[in-house]
Amino acid sequence: MSEVFVCAGCDAVLTAPVSRVALPVHARSSFGHDLLPVLMESGTYAVDREPAGPPWRLWDEVGPERAAARGVYAPVHSLPYGPAGAIVIAPGDCRGTALIPGRTEGYCCGLTGADGPNLACERCGREVATLQDDCSLWRAVRFLEHAVRRRPSGTAHPVPGEPTPLYDRPGTPPVHPTGNWDPCWEIAAGAALAHLLAASGGGPVALPRGLLTDMFGRALGAFLPPPALNAPVNRVALPGPDLPAPGADIAVVPLHPRTGEPCPPPPPDHADTTPATVPLPADIWTYLAFSNNRRLVPAPGTLPVEALRDDPLPPHPWLPFRPDPHSFLTTLARLPAVRRPWLRAIHDRVRAKPYESPF
After folding, report:
1. Contact between residue 145 and residue 165 where contact means Cβ atoms under 8 Å apart
2. Residues forming a β-bridge with 262
């Protein structure tokens, strides 16, 4: 059953019927200098449990102890002290609101919400939400948790894709229709890289051939020692629901699309230890684990009859894959493991020069 959100002041309906899903991993990331797509799929909503928006306080003002109490364990430029628990929907699912005069802060193409909530209930004038649609920002409406109430909509409105099993969902390809790497892949890879480094313990990592090596190989090669002959190595695999990976030391697992929690890998046999987990969005994990977009046809010419070639060639950008440095640093700063000296040194190195190799 779906829900609607109503104004806490006058009970006016402020949304279309929506069903809850997990907040996308890229929700808190900006990207490039273009207009970005809508963050939430139509008919869905998510709850952002983290504080967001103004006022902002600089790291030097907050200090390490108070920052750690807020779940931040390494220096960041500033911390948001706005309200937590925002209800996030697609702008097209918003109803019965109006822009607040004077709350139109933005860069060039739209609104950022930097000056506070910019949407009010049309009926009673109560501040209820913030519209974000400027360049570099994923377009969304964020309702203040205390300004709205949740009610059953009275109509069946299933979450898109349910009840399809997680591993039967279509994966999202890594290459955007523009021919570049998909920014959602780059942002997700930046966050996953932070978890992968923490799980490695500073030791060498062995990646399976394919896209996982494209995503993480260059960065891990710069941060971690190479595997040595007959020395222990952290083996990475892609286990998931009904997809075992015996012997893996690090499991790259999907985030459940409804709860946002990492799906536990299949239990190991009695000889194995439980692997450390590295989360990825379900649509990206599914593509890595199951997709094969190669169309193989017989090769002409003087090659053997059994030889095959790609027709057409799989799309591949001309630039190497680059995990997003912002999502990498944001995630790493929120992992308690960053307190380890070797991992803190990596954080500080990337933070000092985020646009240099390997990023």
Report:
1. no
2. 255
List b or e across 138-173, with b for residues whose CB sees 16 or more CB atoms inside 10 angstroms. bbbbbbbbebbeeeebeeebebebeeeebbebebbb
CA 333 – CA 312 distance, rounded (Å): 42
Distance CA(93)–CA(16), nearest Å, equals 5
Residue linked to tokens 């364990």: 73
127 and 102 Cβ atoms separated by less than 8 Å: no
CA 124 to chain CA centroid, nearest Å:
36
Pairing of β 86-89 and β 140-143: antiparallel
Q: Is the pLDDT score of 21 beyond 60? A: yes
Handedness of CA 55, 83, 53, 14 (dihedral sign): negative
Q: Percentage of the chain with pLDDT > 90? A: 57
Q: Return left, alpha or beta for 298; rule: phi > 0 is left, psi -120 to 50 is alpha, else beta.
A: beta
Q: What pLDDT does 155 receive?
A: 67
pLDDT tens, position by position, 74-91: 999 999 998 899 999 999
What is the number of alpha carbons within 13 Å of residue 68 lying toward its C-beta? 9
Span 82-117, pLDDT tens digits:
889 999 999 999 999 999 999 888 778 888 888 889
pTM (2 d.p.): 0.87
